User: What shape does this take?
Amino acid sequence: MKVIQSFWSGNQNNFDNSGGWYSYRYHWMSWILSCHQLIKYHNDVELYTDKFGYEILIEKLKLPYTKVHVILDEVNDYPKDFWAIAKVKTFQKQNEPFLHVDGDVFVWNSLTDQFKNSNLVVQSMEVTDMYYRNIWKDIYPELVYLPEELQKFHIDQSNISYNMGIVGGNNVNFFKNYCKKSIEFVDANKVSWSRINGLHFNVFFEQLLLCKYAESMKQEVNFLFPEKPVDNEYFGFADFHKVPDKTYLHLLGNYKKEPVICKFMENYIMRFYPESYANLGALINEFNEIDSEIEILNPEIVQELMNEFQAELRNDSFDSNQFLLKRDLYSVDLYKKINVFFKENQDFKIVKLNGFELKESASDQNSIVIEELNSPFREYILDELDEILLEELNIPVSYVHLAETIKEYLEDDDEESVNEISELLKTKLKNYIKLKIISIYN
Assistant: This one.
């Protein structure tokens, strides 16, 4: 079973197209990380793309796909918002078992090992809640053709769909027939294209139609996540701080627009795929005609910078030169490290970092403003315990000592209160690591 991905520019050829992300830079970073992680855990990872995608992803970013098919310019006559038509056309090209993985999906294990014998595979089920119904109400009156498989959904007798962050399987003939139906659905409504929301229409001719056709054909479907998401909320699908223990992330929907999540992704790429990060930096500099991005970065430089930061950390004396870059590289796996310390009851040293400032407020709701590399500042509102901890961390301190010190602030020193403050301290320290205002070592 091979892994495939598809990229279609919508015949726009816009390098600065954000693709729904917080910034266009993160759109391209997503492809960098998705490709590299798939290559790490799978033997065959092929890209289906158009000429513009080939230029950026292969010629400029040099992503290491095992094979590239430049065929998706053939869908350029479709509206640019019909992005799922490129996926469907890609499915249609397959003549052997496959697994299609979206460009905003990142893995830390093999998907094909898990599903190599599966008839059909999708990421998860979705409940067709009011969001589906509301956008359908706008689309349906404009349609001139509705596939038989969607009739039950239309009359509100079926409320299940699929999320297709991953999709595929061994039943290639099923996909051939599904693709024929999907393309027929789109093409038969050509007179309506200009009157419907194309982004919303994708939901129906891609994932809902696949679900209903599979149901009608009584197909066995395996799910990466068998449970239905509550209110279609995909909690935990953007937890970069938990990888590699968490082996699957999918930055769908609003996750793409969260600056903090985007920075987690950027830091991970800088740390583990520095050459690709530098290639993107050079491309951004060329596009903007300024030299604001990092153009030279490789594993040797990354290790050297991390070694420098570790020495500075132990001396509690930080060089301002490349501080933010060194801080971000070093912080990537600290969340996992602190969890190991807690689990194994190991003591460790905590050092408050540079790179943030206190912002006092007349309303007694103080905050800190945290500097980010190549991104806007981040603000974090302080509570009373934050104020105490930041004061106590003015000098490096061991975790055991800090835990004992915090107990002195308790009004009651009963066992329940002590346990509560201990757990709260752990939560605060883990959050400070995510905020990059402390670092740790032992």
